[in-house]
Amino acid sequence: MLVLCTHAAGLGELVTDSLTADLKGQISYSDDSAVMITTNADAARVGRLSYVKNSFAVIGSVPRRQSLGQSIGAITRELSRWTLDRSRRPFRLMFSEDGQLVGVPGGSRTRLESAIGRATGGRFQARGGGDEYWTIARRDLDEVLFCRRIPAPRRRQPAKGGLAPDVAELIVNAAGRSRPGDVVLDPFAGTGALIRARTQKPFREAICVDLGYRTGSVQLLPELARDKGVRRLAEDARTLPSLPDDSVDLVLTDPPWGEFEQDPAAAAALIADALFSIGRVLRPGGRLAMLVARRLAGDVTRQWRRNDLRIGRSYDLLINGHPATLLVGTLDKTAVLDGTG
């Protein structure tokens, strides 16, 4: 199945890597907010991916014409050659160009409606349920796609001040293969968005640390508060006094950086202290994924190295319009032991 997936802008490479891993597919096109992938995964699997805004099963395509109306005419002529389910379900039409919904000439639309009705046995319905057929043009794509939108469950809304669920899932994916025996830590957990994303996969224990739990200024998500596999610690990420050495397999974290807009040196110092404790509690070979402001990435990278943390991959992202960098790596003390650090 050929699928077009759209996603939030600014996450491109991270989404591409996640889709390749989740769908075991081959990427044929990508831009800043869309990816086209060939996969053997079923449509329901694609629709459940929280970091995908909309997904479309590609039914066919035509070379891009001078106008979208001309491309729609070509799609109408080709439609009888393509495979559409004889579902007899009502349907509606949508037209998108470069990520924006657009209008098309009435005659082109009416002829396409009639062709779809003949192929599916369904009737056009302007509103309500039924199938959605989309004609999609992307700026850097030489073809115009005719697709059926894949239904998706209702998306979770981010907690106030918390990381968006789609970004959290992408960070979890970037951290590498999830293992049932993992002990997972977020030393700046806040409401627990990253831990919630990780607990959708097998784990042994998850630990949320935040000083705000002590004063009640931060509340853990209710589903995490009820989960017996999740431990909440109201303590300082810079020391992690309750956690013994070599006790954690995976650290996922988004240290505070928005509140340090006017004082990046203070943010860098906070992260440096936290990295010392993270390096202490991680087991050798343990993994770390950390989201930081892009302007801090150079300083933070140097702090990783000082704490025996080796960066395997980095991603430049836009998070709510703010430049950010995701660093992903492992604890590797052999570089120091063998003199290569």
UniProtKB/TrEMBL annotation:
Tell me where in this chain the Ribosomal RNA large subunit methyltransferase K/L-like methyltransferase domain is found.
235-295
Question: Which GO molecular-function terms appear in the entry?
Answer: nucleic acid binding; tRNA (guanine) methyltransferase activity
**What Gene Ontology biological process does one annotation of this record name?**
tRNA methylation
**Top-level lineage group:** Bacteria
Pfam families (UniProt xref):
UPF0020
The record's section on CDD domains has:
AdoMet_MTases
Record-linked InterPro entries: DNA_methylase_N6_adenine_CS, RlmKL-like_Mtase, SAM-dependent_MTases_sf
Give the matching PANTHER family.
THUMP DOMAIN-CONTAINING, TRNA (GUANINE(6)-N2)-METHYLTRANSFERASE THUMP3
**What is the protein's given name?**
Ribosomal RNA large subunit methyltransferase K/L-like methyltransferase domain-containing protein
